[in-house]
């Protein structure tokens, strides 16, 4: 038996988008940016942002669509979904022709870390938020 899980804490880069599969199952997609800071070998601070594309299904999809907004802070627990062609991240070419990739995550748990009094995101458990603004979302 094999198993993997990934846990992310980050902020939504845009409002979630919900749709329904042909069989009627809800799926909500949204981008999440994770950030870390460290000191580079030259002694200068380095800021690193990694974007993930998250999909939530069923009742979780509906809840995410209702309560999450751009800037909402979330904790995601789920599994990486590999590109069937490469076995790795999804790879594509941007409109300007440069290569890009994204890490795809299928969420099993989404915890809302944004309190009702902070930002547009709303309701949920485990709350507290720092809004993030990012103009260059890769998807």
Structure explained in plain terms:
The protein has 139 residues and is mainly β. The protein has one domain: Nucleic acid-binding proteins (OB fold (Dihydrolipoamide Acetyltransferase, E2P)), CATH 2.40.50.140. 7% of the residues lie in helices and 47% in strands. It has 1 helix and 7 strands; from the N terminus they run E-E-E-E-H-E-E-E. The chain has a 5-stranded mixed beta barrel. Strand 2 and strand 3 (26-39) form a beta hairpin. Mean pLDDT is 84; it is low at 120-139.
Q: What share of residues are in beta strands?
A: over 45%
CATH class reads: Mainly Beta
What's the number of structural domains? 1
Helical fraction: under 10%
Element order, helices and strands? EEEEHEEE
The CATH architecture term is: Beta Barrel
- Helical region count? 1
Sheet with most strands: 5 strands, mixed, barrel
Care to count the β-strands? 7
Going by helix content, strand content and strand pairing, the class is: mainly beta
**What's the CATH H-level superfamily name?**
Nucleic acid-binding proteins
């Amino acid at each position: 038996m094999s198993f993997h899980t990934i846990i992310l804490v980050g902020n939504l880069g845009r409002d979630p988008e919900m749709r329904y599969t042909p069989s009627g199952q809800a799926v909500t997609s949204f981008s999440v940016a994770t950030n870390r800071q460290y000191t580079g070998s030259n002694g200068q601070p380095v800021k690193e942002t990694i974007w993930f594309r998250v999909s939530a299904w069923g009742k979780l999809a509906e809840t995410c669509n209702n309560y999450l907004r751009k800037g909402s802070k979330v904790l995601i627990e789920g599994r990486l979904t590999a590109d069937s062609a490469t076995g790795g991240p999804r790879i594509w070419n941007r409109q300007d022709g440069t290569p890009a990739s994204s890490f795809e995550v299928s969420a099993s748990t989404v915890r809302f870390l944004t309190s009702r009094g902070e930002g547009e995101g709303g309701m949920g458990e485990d709350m507290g938020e720092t809004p993030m603004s990012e103009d260059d979302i890769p998807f």
